[in-house]
Each structure stands twice: as C-alpha cells, then as structure tokens.
Amino acid sequence: MSILSEFKEFAVKGNVIDMAVGIIIGAAFGKIVSSFVGDIIMPPIGVLIGGVDFSDLAIVLKEATEGAEAVTLGYGKFIQTLIDFTIVAFAIFIAVKFINKLKRQEAPAPEVEPEPSKEEQLLTEIRDLLKEKK
C-alpha cells in the first residue's frame, strides 16, 4: 500500500472530518468567547475596580533611548490573560454543563433486539420439527 493511498484512507475517515469540523467550530467559538470577555465582561469589571486596565501595567527595565525602545516587563498583559482564561474556562464549563443537561433530558432510544442469525433460525426450525414428531 503506497503512502498516498494510506493518507487518502486516513483523511477520508469520519473521525478526521469530525475533528476538522470541531477545530473550525472551536476557533469560531473562541472568537465569540474572546469578544464576550473583552467587550462585555471586562468593561464592567474595569469600572468596578476603578478603571484599571491591567494590560497597561508594566515595569520599565530600561528607559527608551535614541534609536532604542524601552525594555519593559509587561506583567499586566499576563494578569489580563489569566483573567481572560478564567472567564473563558468558566463560560465553556457552563456551556458543557448545559449541553450535558440537555443530553440527560433526552429519552433513551428503546433497544431493538437483533434478529436471530441464520444458524439460530435453522436450529429453531429443527427444534420445532422435532417437537411435532413427538
């Protein structure tokens, strides 16, 4: 089997397609959640804590000179990223919890007994014929 045919077999399997769709939807969902955090959640939090924008917090390690920019340690961006992550993680937790609740509410499908195999059908016929002879 050539590498090309192996790759084709791998690429067209359902799991790979499902994974690709999941990644694409995940990226789109990530943008939605980022906008929710940045545009909806963080402004009220900023007002509550006195208008502090964490992303501007930094320690200047070396002042700017002619021809060189200042060297700063931007710890505020890190704090902002931690806050964003916490809110995103909580939003995903709530979404997964909601989805799981919906799944639990669905009635389980009734189990359908599989049809007997041909061997079982044949044995049943033989049994019935033997009962008739008695």
TrEMBL record:
Keywords (A to Z) from UniProt: Cell inner membrane, Cell membrane, Ion channel, Ion transport, Membrane, Transmembrane, Transmembrane helix, Transport
Subcellular location as annotated: Cell inner membrane; Cell membrane
InterPro entries, per database record: Mechanosensitive_channel_CS (IPR019823), MS_channel (IPR001185), MSC/AndL (IPR037673), MscL_channel (IPR036019)
TM helices/strands, residue ranges: 12-33, 78-96
PANTHER family: LARGE-CONDUCTANCE MECHANOSENSITIVE CHANNEL, MECHANOSENSITIVE CHANNEL MSCL
Complexes and interactors: Homopentamer.
Name this polypeptide is given: Large-conductance mechanosensitive channel
